[in-house]
Amino acid sequence: MEAGSRVRAEYDFDAQPNSGEMSIKAGETLTIIKAGIAGGWLEGKNTRGSIGLFPESYVSSVQDSLVS
To answer: Residues 5-24: pLDDT tens digits?
Structure first.
């Protein structure tokens, strides 16, 4: 995964308070801001504009498709 790519949450993740983490819900689409963070984390943004860290293992890549 790389910065700018989109991912879909496969599982819910509850962030720890004041940790820089972001809670995510299964089915939510996120945009990666920074990948390759030590320990298997990604930094991303959700559709509401929140930014934070979440586990890379909780998300999968979204294939963008062209609509004609």
So the answer is: 999 999 999 999 999 999 99
Domain range enclosing 46: 6-61
> How many CA within 13 A on the CB side of residue 56?
15
Q: How far is CA 66 from CA 6, 19, 23, 33, 46, in A?
A: 15, 37, 30, 23, 22
CA neighbor of 37 nearest in space, from 3, 61, 7, 14: 3
DSSP label of 47: T
Q: Specify the CATH number for the domain of residue 27.
A: 2.30.30.40
Q: 64 vs 1, 8, 9, 23, CA distance in Å?
A: 14, 12, 15, 24
The predicted model scores a pTM of 0.87
Specify which residues 30 forms β-bridges with: 7, 46
